[in-house]
C-alpha cells in the first residue's frame, strides 16, 4: 500500500512539471492530471492501512497498459490518449530513458492507479513497480503525435533503430520462393547469379 502511494504520487509530480511545460503552448489545451492518493492508518481495523483518493465518475478508460502489447484505440484516437502517450514520451526523454510512467488510466484527463518502470538500478534512488521490459516496449512501439511535436520531443524511432545491432547480409530461402540470390564477393562472382532452389 505504501509503494502504491509512493508510485502514484511520484508520477503525479512528473505530471505537474509536464503540465507546466505543456499548458502554455498555443493549442495544447488541457493536460492529463494524476490524482493524489493518500495513505490512511486505521489501527482498530483488521486491515490497518488503506488508500483514499478522489472518486472518478464517468467512463473509465485504459490509455496504456503495463506490458505495452494491447492495441488500444482510445490511446491512439482520443485527445486524452494522445496526451497520455506524449506524457510518457516526455518523462522518458526527461529521465534519459531511465523511467517511464505506465498503465495510464482514468476518466477523461484525470488518471489513477498508474505504474512506473525504471531501469534495473532505478532512477535517482527510486525503483518502480513495473518491469524494465515496459521501457523497451515503449521505445519500440511509441508513435509520436502532434502533442509530442508541440513539445519538441525527439522521435524514438531513430534512437531505437540506432541501438539495434546491424543485421547480417546473408540471404535466406523464403518459403515458396523459386530462387534465391547468391551473396558472393564481386571478384568471385560467376556469370550465373541465381541458384535454383529445387
TrEMBL record:
It catalyses: L-threonyl-[protein] + ATP = O-phospho-L-threonyl-[protein] + ADP + H(+); L-seryl-[protein] + ATP = O-phospho-L-seryl-[protein] + ADP + H(+). Residues 1-156 form the Alpha-type protein kinase domain. Pfam families: Alpha_kinase. Its main location: membrane. Residues 187-198 have a biased composition (Basic and acidic residues). Its EC number is 2.7.11.1. GO terms for cellular component: basolateral plasma membrane. One of its GO terms (molecular function) is protein serine/threonine kinase activity. Residues 159-198 are annotated as: Disordered. SUPFAM superfamilies: Protein kinase-like (PK-like). Belongs to the protein kinase superfamily. Alpha-type protein kinase family. ALPK subfamily. This is Alpha-protein kinase 2. It comes from Alectura lathami (Australian brush turkey). The gene is Alpk2.
